[in-house]
Amino acid sequence: MAIDLDPFQNPYVKDGLVLPELASSYLERGRLRPGMITPDGVVVRAFERIGWTWGGSWSSLKDYQHFSRNGR
């Protein structure tokens, strides 16, 4: 089971590939804007409470929009 939230504000990034393509400005995670998921934010904490993991904490790629029950 998995869910993706606000994909434009929380893009997928790997080896220079950004999806959605026009979401590159949201890679700068220090500049917080509406809809952005942050490591210490309410969204991440809520999913952690039910045992789900956040793709924004992965090391091989970043999938800021992604939460999953099995870590994939």
Question: Can you give a write-up of this model?
Answer:
- Helices cover 11% and strands 22% of the residues.
- By secondary structure, the chain is an alpha+beta fold.
- The protein has one domain.
- Strand 2 and strand 3 form a beta hairpin.
- It starts with a strand and ends with a strand.
Keywords:
72 residues; alpha+beta; 3-stranded antiparallel β-sheet; 1 helix; 11% helix
In short:
With 72 residues, the chain is an alpha+beta fold. It has one domain (2-27, 35-68). 11% of the residues lie in helices and 22% in strands.
Q: What structural category do the secondary elements indicate?
A: alpha+beta
Largest sheet: 3 strands, antiparallel
Count of distinct structural domains = 1
Strand order of the largest sheet: 1-6-4
The fraction of residues assigned to DSSP E strands is 15-25%
Termini separation comes to 9 Å
Order of helices and strands: EEEHEEE
Low-confidence stretches: none
Radius of gyration: 11 Å
Mean pLDDT: 96
The helix count comes to 1
Number-wise, the strands total 6
Describe the oligomeric state of these chains in a short phrase: single chain
Shape: globular
Q: Helicity, in percent?
A: 10-25%
